[in-house]
Amino acid sequence: MIKRLLKSVREYKTASIIVPVLMAVEAIMEIVIPFLMTFIVGELQRVAEGVEEQVDINVIAIVSTLMILCAVIALVSGSVGAKLAAKASCGFAHNLREDMYNNLQTFSFANIDNYSTASLITRITTDVTNVQNAYQMAIRMLVRAPILFIASIIMTVVIEPVMALIFAGAALVLGVVVAFCMFRVVPYFRTMFKKYDNLNSVVQENLTAIRVVKSYVREDKEISKMKVATGDVYTYSVKAERILTIMMPSVMLVMFVVNIIILTMGSNMYVGNLGGGIQPSELQTLIQYSAQILSGVMMVAMCLNFIALSRGSAERIVQVLDETTTLPNPEHAVKEVGDGSIDFENVEFRYSQKADVAVLKNINLHIDAGEMIGIIGATGSGKTSLVSLIPRLYDTSKGTVKVGGIDVKEYDLEELRNSVAMVLQKNVLFSGTISENLRWGDENATDEQIKEAAEQACADEFIQNLPGKYNYDLGQGGVNVSGGQKQRLCIARALLKHPKIIIFDDSTSAVDTKTDATIRENLRKYAPDTTKIIIAQRIASVQDADKIIVLDEGRISGIGTHDELVKNNAIYREVYESQIKGGEE
Question: What sign results for the dihedral spanned by CA atoms 289, 291, 293, 299?
Fold first, then answer.
């Protein structure tokens, strides 16, 4: 997992290597300063005890100068190290988000079905921030703290070996406490991040459907849902933090106990001259080293705190990074789609290999290039699933789908999808102007081409009445236009792509029948060679098609013209009669 994450360090590798070196320099300087202090205190002690008549100013000056130099080196190393650590960790987070987002763009619909939108947002935002903080702590403190600890132990052994055993015992006690906390806290953090997903999901759903919430006066219910979601995050956060709060008091307790033991033993050794005795200057240095040893343990505890928090996040990030698309490009991909002919050969499709029921069963179908095909059927009959196989949004479970006489699995995905335009059931527009949205069909389209596509989609007539016309700002998700206007803009965007196949997935349901008929007429007139597939609930939207396909529970119930199906297909006739009667009434 760590190895996979570190691949995102990239151009910040140099900074990430320099930081530990600078932290090591800072730690060594901090170790040297107490040792130098011993010489000054020792000099003053010798004068106080009458061993020397006066203080040797040269010794004091030299040692003081060395201490100042060490302090300056430590200050510069620490400051530069902190700056580089911030740069490296922020850069690492930037690359991590970029890598996750880039991998998301390769996901098939089947991959995306494995995650909720809220979960992916949490992973790219909160989870990456947690890993970023842990990374910064790791390259700084996880180097500095062990060096402080080890070097202080070594210096303590040099001064008084017995005291070193006390520090080692204290460190062992703290190590057990830290290990216990980490073992207990990680499961709580994992659960907490799942609750974060739910929290984001509640917020996203509420904001997306805010008009429905207000129209049904369901604000209180949404507030209740939010309270539950935030309460769950709070509960597991508190459970985790309660365990982590044990760490700092434990460190402080051990630090004070060690200081008491050192002072007691040191005083007895000095007064009683036990074990060769100990000098006050050495005792003072030992106390300083005890503070550094235990502060080192404290730093490690803080680092492990961040690492514990980030471990669950790291696992979730790596899950996204390691996810491979279920629709890989073939090694020797076909780079050009010949024409818009389509063939379904013994096709069966399931959204999941574990699914008990196939969505499509035994589909055999041939569509000539340039034909206008209508697809009709009850809700859940597999209409959208059928057309989703053409641009290879999903792969078949069995059988073959061919476009231009070639299996869609042999095409380069980008080339195939550039040749197939889909106007989906849910009309999706983006923040920006009408012109910017239509250019999704063709980035290099001229203003004349955009206007021409809008005219064919019957969108130009309302665009001309908008302030700014094609520069009119649609707002987030196209909130500034009606449902029917959204549909016409989406149709214009698809037409601007000049595809070999264009699919309308119930995408004229919000426009009136006259506009619907005009759009179909324009399709025949301006795109005669483009294969046109129209999924609709209204018979009027498909009755002039060259062929109409009737789907029933994932199977083809009938194929033919409108007149043929009225005579020969009971499902089609029933729908037709119900709509005709409804129209008469």
Answer: negative
Q: What is the pLDDT of residue 503?
A: 92
CATH 3.40.50.300 residue ranges of the chain are 342-584
At the topology level of CATH, where does 342-584 sit? Rossmann fold (3.40.50)
Global pTM value:
0.74
Domain with CATH 1.20.1560.10 in the chain: 2-322
**Residue 584: its pLDDT value, please?**
45
Both tokens assigned to 333: 């991909």
What would you report as the CA-atom Rg of the chain, rounded to the nearest whole angstrom?
A: 36
| Intervals of the chain under pLDDT 70 | 43, 45-53, 270-281, 294, 581-585
pLDDT at position 585 is: 42
Half-sphere exposure of 232 (CA within 13 A, CB side): 17
Alpha helices in 439-556 (DSSP H): 447-456, 460-463, 483-495, 513-526
pLDDT given for residue 180 in this prediction? 82
Mention every residue, 6+ apart, whose C-beta is less than 8 A from residue 28. 147, 151
Angstrom distance (rounded) from CA 109 to CA 392:
10
* The length of the chain, given as a count of residues: 585
Looking at the domain covering 2-322, what would its CATH class be? mainly alpha
Q: How far, CA to CA in Å, does 477 sit from each of 5, 208, 431, 453, 456?
A: 34, 10, 6, 21, 23
Question: Which residue carries 């697809």 as its tokens?
Answer: 375
pLDDT of residue 581: 57
- Measured in degrees and rounded to the nearest 5, phi and psi for residue 366 equal -125, 130
pLDDT in tens, 383-438: 989 999 999 988 898 999 999 999 999 999 889 998 999 888 777 888 889 999 89
Instruction: State the pairing for strand pair 531-535/372-377.
Output: parallel
For the beta sheet containing 372-377, the strands, ordered from the edge strand earlier in sequence to the opposite edge, are: 420-423, 501-505, 531-535, 372-377, 547-552, 555-560
CA dist list (Å): 265 to 154, 155, 157, 158, 311: 19, 18, 15, 17, 42
